[in-house]
Design brief:
Radius of gyration: 13 Å
Oligomer: single chain
CATH architecture: 3-Layer(aba) Sandwich
Pfam family, one: DIM1
Helix content: 25-40%
Distance between the termini: 24 Å
CATH class: Alpha Beta
Largest sheet: 2 strands, parallel
Order of helices and strands: HHEHE
Number of strands: 2
Main location: nucleus
Number of helices: 3
Low-confidence stretches: none
Subcellular location: Nucleus
Shape: globular
Strand order of the largest sheet: 1-2
Keywords: Nucleus
InterPro entries: Dim1
Length: 81
C-alpha cells in the first residue's frame, strides 16, 4: 500500500493542498465501501486509478462538509467468487 500511495502522490497532491480545513473538522471522514467498516481499507487495491477514485470521492465529500461519503465502486464480497 505504501508503494501505491507513493506512486499516486503527485496526482493527488492538489486534493491535499486545496482543502486546508480538513483538520478543523475534527472527526474521521468515513467512506461507505459496502463493507462493515467505514473508516479503513484493509485489502490490497488492484491499481492506482482505483485509489485515486477513492481519494477523489473523499475530497469531494469533504468540500461539501460531509462526514460520510459513498464509494465509487461496490467493494462487498457478495459478488466475488
Amino acid at each position: 500500500m505504501d508503494e501505491m500511495l507513493a506512486s499516486v502522490a503527485e496526482t493527488i497532491e492538489n486534493f491535499v493542498t486545496e482543502v486546508p480545513d480538513i483538520n478543523t473538522i475534527n472527526k474521521h471522514i468515513m467512506i461507505a465501501l459496502s463493507t462493515d467498516n467505514n473508516n479503513k481499507i484493509n485489502w490490497a487495491l488492484k491499481d492506482k486509478q482505483e485509489l485515486i477514485d477513492i481519494i477523489e470521492t473523499v475530497y469531494r465529500g469533504v468540500r461539501k462538509g460531509r462526514g460520510l461519503v459513498i464509494a465509487p465502486k461496490d467493494y462487498s464480497t457478495k459478488y466475488r467468487y
